[in-house]
Structures are given as C-alpha cells and as structure tokens.
Design a protein that fits this description.
It is a single chain. The protein is of the alpha+beta class. It has two domains: about 220 residues, Periplasmic binding protein-like II (D-Maltodextrin-Binding Protein, domain 2, 3-Layer(aba) Sandwich); about 170 residues, D-Maltodextrin-Binding Protein, domain 2. It is built from 19 helices and 14 strands. Strands 8, 9, 10, 11, 12 and 14 form a six-stranded mixed β-sheet that branches. A four-stranded mixed β-sheet has the order 1-2-4-3. A four-stranded antiparallel β-sheet has the order 5-13-7-6. Strand 3, helix 3 and strand 4 form a beta-alpha-beta unit. The N terminus is likely disordered.
Length: about 475
C-alpha cells in the first residue's frame, strides 16, 4: 500500500499543482514551508461554540487561555464535511498545549466571500486556504513565507508547495481524487462490471440500459441528481468542466491560458446530457437539488452512478451500499484514447498563514501546523478526516480506511494516466458562476447550449483580463 500511495503522490506531482501553475483561479491557494518547532505554553482549556451568521458560516470555536507569548490560532476551514472533526482536533491541541485554537467553517460554496469578510475584521484568521495559483494571486499579500518551516519541510515533494519566486506561500495538505462513484452490486445485477466501461460510448450504453430497466432493478435512475444548488453545482461548473479544459491543455501543450478555445465543449455537452437524461430527477427540478440529495440517492441505492470524490465516503458509508460495493470510474467524455484515462487526482487545499497577523499568532499557527503533521494525535486526526496527506510521517497506519482511496490507488497501479486538476486555473469564481447558470438554464430548457459556450469561452477571456489588468 505504501508503494502504491507513493505512486499516487508521484502521479499527483504532475497534476494541477505543477501542470496548472501559471493559471488564475479563486477561493483556495497553496502555501508551503517548514514551521519551526517550538514549545507551546501553559495549560487551561474551555470549549465553546459560535455561529458566524454574518458571514454565512457554520462555526464551532474551541477556546483556551492564551499562552505566555499571547499567541492563538484562528483557522477558517474550507471543508464543511470535516467541520466537527477540526473542532475536536483543535480541542485536543488546546488540552495538550493550552493554546487557543478557534475553528470556523464556511458554508459550502461561500469560502471566498467568507474569507474576504473575515480578513476585514480585527480578529482575522491566522490560518486559511487557497485553491492554487489563482487563489494565491488574490491573497499573496496575506501569505506568510513558509520557507524553512517544519510544515513545508515535511512535504514529500516540492510539487506540493505553492511557490512565488523564492517564497513559499502555501502547502498542500491533502491529495484527493474524484470520478464516477458507482454501485458494483447493482451494476453486476444488471449484467455489467467496471471492465465493460472504458469509454463514453460504453458508459452511455450501460447508463441508457440501466435507466430503461430502472423499475426492474429497483432504482430511480442511473445517475444521481445533478443538483445546481450551491452545495452541489461545483461538481459540474468546476469538477466536470475540468475534463474538457484538461484535454484542451493537453492537446495544445499548455498549462494555462488567457483565452480558452472550448475545443472539447461538445464532449462536455454529451456527458452533461447523459447526467440529465439518465437521472433520478426531472432536469426542471435541478435548481433546488442539493449535494445531500445526491449523496442520499447513492447511499440508499436509488442511483448507480454519483459524480464525486474520495471525500464523499463519509456521507455514503454505513448505509445501504456496502463498502465492498463502492467503486469509482473515470469520467469519460468521448475523447480519443480515453480508455487509458485514470481518475482526477490533485489538490486545491493549501494552508496559508496570515502574514498580517501578530508575530505571536503567526508562531502559534506554525506550531499548530507542525503538531498536525508530526504529532501522532495530529496525524491520526487528519487520517480520521479521510485525508491522504503528502507529508513524510504519514505511513501506512495513517492512511484512511476508505474504499475510494483504494480504487484511486488501483488506477495508478494499473498505469492509467491521472487527469490534472486544471480547474485551479479557472479565471474567477464569477466565471464558474456564469458557466453554472448557463448549464442550469440549458437543463431546464430555458436556455440553449450556445449560452454555455459563450459563458465558457467569452466569459473566460473577460474574467482573465479583469484579473490580470
């Protein structure tokens, strides 16, 4: 397993962290460096919970007395699915060191706006996230140089560091994979296996058959609902949109662009059409369908295919689908040679330390990160969150028990080419929103595909120019 994981991480090194390093994007960036290990002061704890309603956050705060140096940590977390676990881990750190650690989690789809609001406050986050080069470009003045810190030095490859010249602005802390999660048992009940699906043509044939036989198979549709609520639309305006961008970059031998051509938008259309026609849900209802709806449809066996990633395991486990029946396929869109395509693997989760915080708070934050990636309790906490972490000390015992991670490793071991996370080069959140709105209008029948093309191509050029004035 260790060798396979090493292969996965090595493959990820060629992914968006390096491959898309010149692009522009939003919401999250990478900062990497090594944090100096220091001894935290005093012991005293208290745990409290707060809701940051004004910034649309779901928040729980762990409080303790300040250290002798006065330093404390405020982490603005990007991942709602790990909100409670981060609070619990922060409480353990506080109990062990006496250092105050507050964890606030932005509501799904609101991280960038929440970060802007929180950074304007007196008590701003000392630890935050960016999604790559684009996110870093927006927040680089707030990114402390992590060069020489323990957290940066513990990273297994420089490819997981977000560099700005000689400065390390961020460090990736989790490597993730997404694709088409599927129910092996229902697929086999219908007479198929994963080996029958190695291209879009085969995926469509199988999905069409499942949809036609849904009553016989006891399902509501081949695919879960493609919800366009803010808790779900990122799966399509960002993660699905990544596939045509990846193939365009690959064909043109580039890693970013000021003007996307939309070479593979017809392929984007046919996979989106498949999601709409072979679904549990009438496309006219997608505006109100949520991420929780899709997860529940898969977890209860109402659908066979569910576009999402390794992080979704906690939402679908311990339900009607047994672990041994959970698999993951590549997202095929009908491109030549896609039978050799693997899953989409990379990171958009980069820790950055607020350079404008006090020296004491910066040091407290670096100490906390050091503890997370080197201390057994910290590493176990990250494992329990389901993270595959690119740090030296994360040996086999700190690998999550997650069948989707095993599936990702199997594709790497089989020699399939992982798909880069080029969505970190998308020019802005506004671009994503424009594409998402056009996709929904098309799905509902109130817009046409040409509007999607316009949002994709013209919107890219406009937003890139605005971001690079």
């Amino acid at each position: 397993m260790k060798k396979v994981l090493a292969s996965l991480l090595a493959a990820a090194m060629a992914l968006p962290l390096a491959a898309c390093a010149s692009g522009s994007g939003t919401a999250a960036t990478t900062a990497g460096s090594s944090a100096v290990t220091t001894t935290a002061a005093a012991t005293e704890e208290s745990v409290g919970t707060t809701a940051a309603a004004e910034s649309e956050t779901q928040a729980t705060t762990t409080k303790a007395s300040e250290t002798a140096g006065g330093g404390s940590v405020y982490y603005l977390n990007f991942k709602p699915e790990q909100a409670d676990q981060w609070v619990a881990l922060a409480a353990k750190y506080t109990e062990e060191t006496g250092v105050e650690v507050s964890v606030v989690t932005a509501a799904s789809g609101t991280y960038e706006s929440t970060l802007k609001a929180e950074m304007g406050k007196t008590e701003a986050p000392t630890l935050f996230q960016v999604n790559g080069p684009i996110g870093y470009a927006s927040w680089k003045d707030y990114c402390y140089d992590l060069t020489g810190t323990t957290v940066a030095n513990e990273v297994t490859s420089d490819s997981f560091l977000l560099k700005d010249g000689s400065k390390i602005g961020g460090v990736a802390y989790v490597i993730e994979t997404y694709g088409l999660i599927y129910n092996k048992a229902i697929l086999e009940q219908a007479g198929y296996t994963a080996e029958d699906i190695t291209s879009f043509t085969e995926l469509k044939a199988v999905a069409d058959d499942l949809q036609a036989r849904k009553d016989e198979l006891g399902i509501e549709g081949a695919f879960t609902s493609a919800g366009m609520d803010s808790s779900s639309d990122w799966r399509f305006k960002t993660h699905l949109a990544n596939i045509p961008i990846y193939y365009e970059y690959k064909a043109d031998g580039i890693t970013s662009t000021a003007a996307i051509k939309g070479t593979y938008l017809d392929n984007y259309k046919q996979i989106w059409d498949l999601y709409l026609t072979d679904s549990t849900t009438d496309p006219k209802l997608l505006s109100s369908k949520t991420g929780d709806d899709a997860a529940a449809e898969f977890a209860t066996g109402a659908a066979v295919f569910y576009q999402n990633g390794t992080w979704a395991y906690d939402q679908i486990k311990d339900n009607d689908v047994a672990d041994e029946d959970i698999g993951m396929l590549p997202i095929y869109i009908g491109v030549e040679g896609e039978e050799n395509q693997g899953l989409c693997t990379g990171s958009e989760n980069y820790w950055c330390v607020n350079a404008q915080a006090s020296e004491a708070d910066i040091q407290a934050t670096l100490d906390f990160l050091t503890w997370c990636v080197t201390n057994e309790t910290g590493k176990t906490g990250l494992k329990d969150m389901g993270f595959v972490c690119p740090f030296n000390g994360f040996t086999d015992e700190f690998l999550p028990d997650n069948p989707l991670i095993a599936e990702a490793n199997a594709y790497v071991a089989a020699g399939k080419t992982p798909v880069d996370w080029c969505f970190t080069t998308m020019p802005s959140e506004e671009w994503k929103n424009g594409v998402g709105s056009a996709l929904l209008e098309y799905a509902q029948g109130t817009g046409d595909w040409d509007a999607v093309k316009t949002a994709f191509v013209d919107g890219w050029a406009t937003e890139y120019a605005a971001a690079n004035q």
